[in-house]
Amino acid sequence: MTSGCIVGAVEDHWTVGRVAELAGVSVRTLHHYDEIGLVRPSARTAGGYRAYSAGDVERLREVLAYRRLGFGLREVADLVGDSSTDAVAHLRRLRDLLLERRDRADAMVAAIDRELEARARGLKVTPEEQLGMLGARLYDAIGGAYTATRRTEPRIAAQILDALGDARTVLNVGAGTGSYEPADREVTAVEPSEVMRRQRPAGSAPCVAAAAESLPFEDQSFDVAMAVSTVHHWGDPIAGLREMRRVARRVVVLTFDTDEPGWQDRFWLTRDYLPEFAAMLAEFPSLAGMADAIGARAEPVPIPWDCADGLFEAYWRRPGAYLEEHVRRAMSVWTRVGPEAEQRAVRNLRDDLDSGRWAERNSDLAHLDTADLGLRLLIA
């Protein structure tokens, strides 16, 4: 639906049939959205029939836009139901997603054109060049979904903020799109991925293109250096942590504990559907080793059942979310285990949800408000 249809209308409500016609969807689709509580017509016609108010039309526009970007209904419900996001914020988010998709498509077209030209000239195309069109950096492959699903979780943020203490100058290493950056401090961000840097909102902290292992700052330049859910992406985590210790007087890191025996069985997703997760972290440093590298203590970070940040473990009590493509795309785990493991895990999870086996196997989770799934805060 175009903004012209809304602005130019003289009615204060729109019938279901008219809205279906303008939006290019079926009346059946609108009825389904009504039944599941996604978009419910709140007005009435003179004849007493249900109709859409201007606010209903605005919400429907957001729902349909997210749907046409490939988002699942559960994810759309979370997005449009976010009370902290108004219509302007939704439009900006949609615009960013569309621009990122356009830029990625343009880059792939250019890469394909180069390969076609090379092949036409009889030149050999190397595997590196073939894979170049897909993007070498992991975050460049998954970063486009971050603005939609990776948002600051207030309860985790409060724990991080408490660990930052009275620090005034903060270095955020592996900063991504800026989640968890404190708004009341002087923050400098470091992020190697251009895709992630482009998605940082207007007015956010200045961001430097650099890697954790080689920070371009003098010794003790900051009160504290922080890193949130990023260490596992670094080429040399211990070197990156030591760099943080070098440039800051204190260090706060949100990471993952693989020290505990049987740690991979803490989470039903890795235990029952994705055993490859354990192998993926086989080379990851131990929590004790990371703590020793910076002289840190570790404290558990419980994950709330309704966690707003779509990190890998966030949906431990909402298993259906893992069936949604865009939820998974914002989690690096799925890219790293590969499409075959991902498709098998999703297929088996869907079968177990449909049959009720998942609910039987995980009935003890139903009444938990938080879960300890291995997230740890290192504080030095």
TrEMBL record:
Keywords: DNA-binding. Gene3D superfamilies: 1.10.1660.10, Vaccinia Virus protein VP39. The keyword DNA-binding applies. This is MerR family DNA-binding transcriptional regulator. It holds the Pfam family Methyltransf_11. It comes from the Bacteria. SMART domains: HTH_MERR. The keyword DNA-binding applies. Residues 13-82 form the HTH merR-type domain.
